[in-house]
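Researcher: I'm preparing a figure for a lab meeting and need a structural model of a single chain. I don't have an experimental structure, so a prediction will have to do for now. The sequence is pasted below. Please return the structure as tokens so I can convert it later.
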Amino acid sequence: MIRDFLSKHKTECGAYALVLTLCFSLFVIYDAFSGTAALFLIPGTLLICAAYFFLCAFVEKHRFIGSVLFGFVLFIVVRLFIFFSRYGMSAYQAIFLEWMLTKGSNAEGAVFFLISLFLFFTFFFSVTVYYFSKVLYRMFFLTLISLIPCVLYVKVMSEINNVSLVLIALCNVAVFILHRNSLRDMGKITKKATLIASGAVFMLMIFLVASAIPKQQEAPYYDEFEDLFMGGDTSSDIEDSFSDLSEFSGDASGFLSQSNRKMYSLYGSTASYLKRQNFDYYDFAKDRWYADETYSTTYSTPENWEAVEQYKNLPSLHSALLAAEEYEPGFLKAHHLNEIKDLRLPLSLLQTTRIQSENFGASYFLVPSNVICLDVGELQDSCRVTPGGAFFSEEGAHPLNFQYSYSYYTDYVYYNSWILAGGVDFDNEEALKLLTDLRNVLQENEDVWYNTASSYLHQQIEADYYRELCTENTVEISSELKDFALSLTDGLSNDYEKAAAIESFFQTGGFTYDLQYHAPDDSPEYFLFTGKTGTCSDFASAYVLLARAAGLTVRYAEGYTPEAEGGNRYVIKNRDSHAFPEVFIQNIGWMVFEPTVASTGNGSPLRFLSRLRMDYGLMAVIAFFLVVLTVLATVLRFLLPLLTEWAFRIRLHVTSVPYGTLLAYKRLLKKGGRVFRENLKSKTPHELSGLFLSIGCDISCLCHYAEQILYAPGFVAPITQKQLCENYASACKALRRYRKTGRPGNHKADV
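Model: Understood. Here is the structure written out token by token.
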């Protein structure tokens, strides 16, 4: 009985074996067979795939009812897939696609994601393999489908095991042999050489995949393939510019990248702006920033620095000033700080964030502007810091998936009270005198707040040095910009108010953020007064120049702005690169201001899809892709036949006449069947010739030559290749006329 069943359903059995091989290959890749899951996975896969095959067979026999049933099953599968994917995202703090393509350690062995994987691929493999095996036989598409496990294997495995990869490939080839042999009765296989050639091509494609998509540790061009599989339209040159400290800033084109590639994951409370590097001088001719060689290469080791820096926060400074008042009554009055006596500032909360690189190696460590402590583990001895506050490893790029942490105080909640109390109403000279006197008083009395005074004094001295360093660059600012900057800050008493006024100008001045805009003039004057459209680098550059023209100590910074993913988890993607200014405010320190206005929606489709997913859920994204696929299918419905016919006629011109005659005969069988709406495969060449003659096309000689070539070895068709191509074209023309008008023509396709 079993033998009879297998003999009767050889085609289905071969396709079914191929589906099982593909499914089990994926399950091995994602460790689905570990534990008790295998007890349910193996029989579940056998039953589910068999059910899908019966469903496809039912649809083939009962088109209307079967289509309704198929749609219902598809809806159930999609709903279950969405349910388990969302549940997994909530449980493992990762999205399904991210886990599937990278197999991140944060969701290793995720049960809900494995269920989603099972639901998607069992349905996909079963339906596609059945269709291209039974309904429309296409060996090419079956080969492409069989490459999926191999590609995912190379993509997700932590180490490439070529032996395992070859074993998967051999299993697929073995199933292909079984499947192709099952199709002999359908006349699909004419030569054994076809089988050998297909297997060889398949194995070649497997080895090409293995060599072309290696792991990052082994491939200098890994980033290009990362972009290919993770989506996005980034450039490797752009990413290289953001992978290390450099002499020059990224130009405006660097911020046009909208790649969805994940670079960092952050856990804990995170700052809004994480700095990579500062730049000092603006090149007016090239419209970009560059770092001062002396200033940027004067590195200092962070040894014992956290012991001093831990006191650098506003509540600590407030406590230090009150302590000085107790030791020397009148100290606050002498420095015009009487109002801070009534302030009640609780201690700042120390926030700690853990950050992990995601298949991205860089020499720098991202930190907020007011970082207090940086713990880089094994790289602590090689960690260095520039006077501008950029942290990096002397040993170069840190290891992949490297983790480190930074700490900072959330002083920003106290800024308003401190500013209103006059804590920033100082110029550089007054601030320097205040902090010097403060340190001296506390040092004489051996007060613990001496560390706070020393920390702020060191910061003030460094800022004064930086301001003098950039004086020469300030001279190059045009008089137009200087006059405008002074008009924006006229009558304001402190640097904070001036910095805020310049920021307000950008936010309310009719500016537009547009990644696709190309200004005819790169000058800051054109951006400020005419174009008023650009990227974050344009906004940050213009802000720094205006602020320097107004007398502020300010620097241009590049880094990233993290994206919230729920809870205390954040992510930094390639698209999150950002430029922003840092302004030094007396008795506070370096503060980030934001001149860049909100996006107007001009961006990549990735941005749109992310926003769509957030607003309407995963179903909206699926609906969007279905619409796109429908439009694409409609276009291909009309375009693909034209391309196929064009390729076939080229083939007729290059192949031998006997073989070309057989190809033309078989193709006319197929094309005629569509026009006459019947299966012409059972008709003899003589019957086919009579059918075409009824529509005014004589192909009797062509049919006779094809019959002789098939059954008379050594027969030579007495036609040339040119005549063959012309006759085939005439027959196609007659079919087109009959299909459109229903009337026979007068096309002689004979010779």
